[in-house]
């Protein structure tokens, strides 16, 4: 259904550029394949659930598809004009441009509505449905009833956000002489004239705000830990096995020493019993660790990984350079807003480009060749997703200081997968604003230019001034009828106070990245079986790993 809708609104423009439609569906296919492979990689084989798996794949795919529409939106507004700043013949009519903009807007309406449905209804219902499942799995009606009961709370929050966004006035209300009914009537007229855009924008911006916290927590750390782990590599399997064998012998010696105290029939003290229990538990973990290390030593993937060590180092260096480029571009963008914006009450909007942003300039240079900027934006989005996954993978899912779930290959519980996909969904929502912060002019106007008439003194015998037409790059000071703003920008910047919070969130992201970079540099090499063996695992989990 989603693909059919996307093909409908993109077909409105396929006559102008069929390459865009073909490339879009290629990206959609890659996204679906990526989501399926990723979820299947991390899901537990012992606790796999069909409903939660399908939900996780669909939720993650919808978020990525939404982000994939951003370069299409930018291309459409840029495709309406020639490089000299004049409109193309087919876009010279205001009605034609309005239809094109409305088509894109309805596409965002559909996708963002599906995201709201996933976050507030679908994912919570599946999560609580699985939580309420008993061991016998007999009482399905009770499961559905309890899941619906908890999901209603999320639905109420969604309705409240929509109502707040719908009726919070963006323009001043009628004067004090107006009656209460006239003020209420004004609010409903505003809601009708905007086609419900503020309501949906407020809800999405609220979710994006939560996504900002996830980006600061997980993505900032993942941007440092992922490349540095590739550069540093893993510890030697032979050395780890030798070290593990020595630890096993040491623990067995301590256990024998404690047991020798009760050979004459005397009971152990409570302190010794506790120590013995801890040592036996540690011995089980070390024995499981030894089995995993033995499997890893024989595994062909480990041998291939050692052979590809130079490629991993090159990839790690590339990733860390990209992370530094993003951080520098984000710093320049925030510095530009701090020095030249209209202030906090405007959401730190910048009138014109005052500081050269390298990423913004690169996107503007690639934009006329459509697939190149689409590829770059897709790579940027996937880079944020991959680094976010790396951050979640290493940190786990936390609620303040409480660790809720661990994310491990083939060991992740269905509830953790749902949490993971909701976090990634919120992170991908925030990447739209992150990309705007990295390249504000590109995301807002694309490569549009507008014509400005400038007076030129006459040098001939005839006195007076003549005018010359010059093309200027569109910015916030451009006439509204000469430059078309992307629909994505309208969704994310409808309310100035959200933009203000995002601005300070970008500073927090930069600080978190630098802290994560220092922490990642100070840490040693990770184990070749990192995350495979934990103290709270059962012996049954080894069977899952072996098979």
UniProtKB/TrEMBL annotation:
Its main location: membrane. GO terms for cellular component: lysosomal membrane. It is a multi-pass membrane protein. This is Lysosomal cobalamin transport escort protein LMBD1. It comes from the Eukaryota. It holds the Pfam family LMBR1. GO terms for biological process: protein localization to lysosome. One of its GO terms (molecular function) is cobalamin binding. It comes from Gouania willdenowi (Blunt-snouted clingfish). It is found in: Lysosome membrane. Keywords: Cobalamin, Cobalt, Coiled coil, Lysosome, Membrane, Transmembrane, Transmembrane helix, Transport. The chain crosses the membrane at residues 18-39, 51-80, 106-130, 150-170, 199-221, 313-332, 374-404, 416-436, 495-519. The keyword Transmembrane helix applies. Residues 241-296 form a coiled coil. InterPro entries: LMBD1_LysCbl_Transport, LMBR1-like_membr_prot. Belongs to the LIMR family. LMBRD1 subfamily.
């Amino acid at each position: 259904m989603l693909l059919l809708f996307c093909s409908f609104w993109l077909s409105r423009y396929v006559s102008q550029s069929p390459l865009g439609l073909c490339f879009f569906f290629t990206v959609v296919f890659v996204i679906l394949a990526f989501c399926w492979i990723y979820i299947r990689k991390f899901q537990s084989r012992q606790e796999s659930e069909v409903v939660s798996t399908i939900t996780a794949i669909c939720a993650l795919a919808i978020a990525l598809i939404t982000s994939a529409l951003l370069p299409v939106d930018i291309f459409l507004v840029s495709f309406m004009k020639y490089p000299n700043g004049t409109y193309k013949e087919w876009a010279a009519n205001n009605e034609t441009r309005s239809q094109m903009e409305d088509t894109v807007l309805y596409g965002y309406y559909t996708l963002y509505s599906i995201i709201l449905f996933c976050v507030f209804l679908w994912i919570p219902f599946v999560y609580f449905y699985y939580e309420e499942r008993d061991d016998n799995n007999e009482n399905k009606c009770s499961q559905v009833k309890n899941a619906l009961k908890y999901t209603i709370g999320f639905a109420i929050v969604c309705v409240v956000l929509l109502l707040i966004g719908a009726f919070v006035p963006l323009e001043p209300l009628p004067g004090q002489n107006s009656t209460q009914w006239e003020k209420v009537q004004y609010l409903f007229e505003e809601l009708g004239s905007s086609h419900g855009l503020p309501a949906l924008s407020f809800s999405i911006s609220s979710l994006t705000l939560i996504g900002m916290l996830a980006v600061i927590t997980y993505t900032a750390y993942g941007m440092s830990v992922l490349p540095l782990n590739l550069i540093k590599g893993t510890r030697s399997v032979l050395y780890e096995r030798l070290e593990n064998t020595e630890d096993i012998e040491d623990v067995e010696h301590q256990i024998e020493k404690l047991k020798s105290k009760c050979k004459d029939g005397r009971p152990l003290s409570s302190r010794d019993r506790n120590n013995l229990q801890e040592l036996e538990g540690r011995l089980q973990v070390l024995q499981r660790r030894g089995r995993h290390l033995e499997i890893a030593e024989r595994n062909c993937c480990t041998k291939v990984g050692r052979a590809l060590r130079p490629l991993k180092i090159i990839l790690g260096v590339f990733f860390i350079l990209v992370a530094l480029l993003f951080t520098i571009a984000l710093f320049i963008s925030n510095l530009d807003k701090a020095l030249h914006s209209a202030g906090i009450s405007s959401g730190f909007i910048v009138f014109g480009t005052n500081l050269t942003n390298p990423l913004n300039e690169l996107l503007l240079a690639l934009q006329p060749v459509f697939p190149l900027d689409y590829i770059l934006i897709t790579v940027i989005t996937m880079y944020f997703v991959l680094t976010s996954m790396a951050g979640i993978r290493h940190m786990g899912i936390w609620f303040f200081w409480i660790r809720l779930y661990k994310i491990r290959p083939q060991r992740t519980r269905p509830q953790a997968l749902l949490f993971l996909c909701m976090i990634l969904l919120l992170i991908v929502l925030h990447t739209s604003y992150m990309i705007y912060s990295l390249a504000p002019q590109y995301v807002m106007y694309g490569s549009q230019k507008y014509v400005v008439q400038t007076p030129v003194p006459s040098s001939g015998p005839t006195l007076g001034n003549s005018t010359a037409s010059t093309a200027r790059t569109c910015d916030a000071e451009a006439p509204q009828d000469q430059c078309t703003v992307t629909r994505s920008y309208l969704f994310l910047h409808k309310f100035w106070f959200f933009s203000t919070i995002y601005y300070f969130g970008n500073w927090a992201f930069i600080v978190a990245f630098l802290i994560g970079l220092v922490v990642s540099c100070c840490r040693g090499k990770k184990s070749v079986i990192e995350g495979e063996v934990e103290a709270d695992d059962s012996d049954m989990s080894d069977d899952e790993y072996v098979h």
